[in-house]
Each structure stands twice: as structure tokens, then as C-alpha cells.
Amino acid sequence: xxxxxxxxxxxxxxxxxxxxxxxxxxxxxxxxxxxxxxxxxxxxxxxxxxxxxxxxxxxxxxxxxxxxxxxxxxxxxxxxxxxxxxxxxxxxxxxxxxxxxxxxxxxxxxxxxxxxxxxxxxxxxxxxxxxxxxxxxxxxxxxxxxxxxxxxxxxxxxxxxxxxxxxxxxxxxxxxxxxxxxxxxxxxxxxxxxxxxxxxxxxxxxxxxxxxxxxxxxxxxxxxxxxxxxxxxxxxxxxxxxxxxxxxxxxxxxxxxxxxxxxxxxxxxxxxxxxxxxxxxxxxxxxxxxxxxxxxxxxxxxxxxxxxxxxxxxxxxxxxxxxxxxxxxxxxxxxxxxxxxxxxxxxxxxxxxxxxxxxxxxxxxxxxxxxxxxxxxxxxxxxxxxxxxxxxxxxxxxxxxxxxxxxxxxxxxxxxxxxxxxxxxxxxxxxxxxxxxxxxxxxxx
Length: 445
Known about the structure:
Elements lengths: L2 H21 L6 E3 L2 E3 L1 H12 L2 E6 L5 H13 L3 H7 L1 E2 L6 H4 L1 E3 L1 H5 L5 E3 L1 H4 L2 E5 L6 H4 L3 H6 L1 E4 L2 E4 L4 E7 L10 H4 L4 E4 L5 H6 L4 H8 L1 H12 L4 H23 L6 H12 L5 H15 L34 H16 L7 H12 L7 H7 L8 H35 L12 H13 L1
Parallel strand pairs: 3-10, 3-11, 4-7, 7-10
Antiparallel strand pairs: 1-2, 5-6, 8-9
């Protein structure tokens, strides 16, 4: 690790430690190698650094929104009050004008169509509180912005070149709605914000002193003036970055914690993207994707088609799935596995990193058949059902991979040689990954 990369790594670890000890008090619930992390805090930090999208589930009042607010404040150098002002609340009366932008009525009376963009649309940090209280029709209003950072209103558009998104969701009750599949699939990871336990819960009230420092109302007013200015959006972005630098320097003096600049985040993302997957991690991820997308009868899993009784692949997860994982899934796994490896100071992504990330990238995307859910829902578990079933699925696939990993790697190596025009006999085996390799070779020949 270069000296510059090492310094950034140390600052990110300091931010994680500062939030864990002073702002979002929690218990570690995820072990990777010899390190223990709190999954909600860890993945929130990786999401902010990686321009990711995260949904945080849990009971009301357990810090779902709070954790995202602190992460955004320290990684993007924004006052806490500005982040609060930019949040979108999920409720049935929410409108496009409150979320994205509204007409400038003064200019409209003069015959000009000018948009006053919301703080939410303009800022690179975006938080949607209680997403599942938005009706399904209103969730569609933010689909394009959530996916690509393009925010459109009237005949105008602004594009966020850098942004991260956090959404929270309480467990289902009479006031919640279903999060539509196109929306839920756009989230890279899903985590649970858990109760910290009786002892830690009593200490939480002591963190208010940091809230007052992170608010800094003078900076809040300055940022809001910049956001409300009638100027080109790209020019405002540069002014906001300069103001963020001033705020970061102020916080470094008061809190003795170094926040991150836009250039810092860019260098971190570049360093993460440069971390290669080792051979096992690559082969294991291919095995996972094959088992979650394959169907011997229809070619791929489809939510409108069901498997036959007595299918040869009954014992594989593809038989228990009602849908096919999207192409966003492997992108999320790759990005967060690299981010986790970087966070741990590793030079390669290993199977352990992939296994740690998989349940959180899979839990919200997969639709299990009802009979399979019924088998699992009564199990003794510490995770919510979605994450528990995803974790069990990963363990099951890993067991199968571990039993035949040499054979799988040989099959992938043989396929690689065939792709390059060499005469090599394909390796056969009893797993969807072998069937996928055969099909690719047949289509290529």
C-alpha cells in the first residue's frame, strides 16, 4: 500500500472508530478474518465511499437514519443540520415538488420556466427516511435519480457526478407499502440496524455534545445560501466543495478527526477498484451467480415460470428461487468486496471477503418460493429472515464449492483456453456452473 493510500486508509479507519465510539454506539455483529465490525456501520461507510446505495431496515428508533447521517457528515464534510434539511420523508402525501424541485413562481409569472432544485436533488449525500411509507406509485418518481443521479423536473435536469444514497425502512406494519422490485434492486446492500443492548443503550444520550458541534449553524446557513443561489449547478458544486473544505478544517480543529475531500474519495475509489480478485474468490462468485440464475428447462430463472417436480437440480438453490438475480448483483458484490478488502488493508479480494459481503448484497434481491420460506422462518436465528436466508444460501453454496473447487477451477480454466482457440476438452460436473460453461462454449462454437 502506497504512503498516500496508507494515509487515506488510516483516516477512514479513524472515521469508523470515531463514529463507533462516540456517535453510533453498537455491538459488532460481523466477523471477517480476525476483525469484528458492526455491519450497519461498516457497510454505511463503504456505501458513502463507493457512491453506493444502501437500505437500512430495523425497528423504529434504533438509529437507522442516525447512522447514515453521521457517516455522510464525516465523509462528505457537511454540517449535520444541512443533511437533516435535505432528507426526504416517506409518507403518502409526498410530492415531486418536495423531493426534486419546484417552479420559481416569480420567474414563472414573467413567462420563464426556471426550476428551484431541492437540497436532496443537489447534495451528493441523499437520505430517504422510511422509504416503504411512500406509495408504490410515488416510489417511481425517484427511480431514475436513484439509479443514475439524473434529476429531472419540467424541462430541466441536473446530474450528480458523485452521490451516495441511503434509505431506511421499518418492518411491515399498517402504514407501510411494498418497495417495488425495480427500486429494491437498485440498492447495493441491505443491513439491519440492531438494538445495541441494555448497557450501551444507556450511554447513547451522552453523544448529544457532538451533535451540537457537527451542526454549526453558521456553516449550515452558508451552505443553504449556496444551494438556493440561481446559478449553474456545476458552478454551485465547486463552491459547495470549497465550503466543505472550510467546514472540514473547522471540524478537524474541534473534533480532532480528519474528514474526506472529494479528491480523497476519488483516490479511495480508485484504490479499491485496483484490488484484484484471487482465483478462488473469482471462481466462487461465478458459482454463486450460476446457482442463483440457472434453470435447466428455461435457460434462466424467470418469476413467471416454475420448476418441474423431480428436476435434476432440486437440491440446488435455483430450484427454491422464484426470480433471477439481476446484473446489478455481481456489480454490487464486486464493488463491496473490493471495498472491504481495502478497508482491511488487503492486497487481494479473497473468498472470505466475498462470503462476508454476499448476504447483504443478496438478501433484498432474491425472491424465495413460499414453501422454502416456510421451512426457514421458524429457525432460531439472530438475523432478520431475509438476511438469515441469504446467509444460509451463501453457506450452502460455499459448502458445495468447497467440495469441488479444484474441479470448478479446472472447468473455468479449460473454458478460458477454448475461448482462446485452443483444443481443450471441457470439464464436466454436476452443478449449474458446468452447465453454464457448456452452454457458453456451444454458443461460441
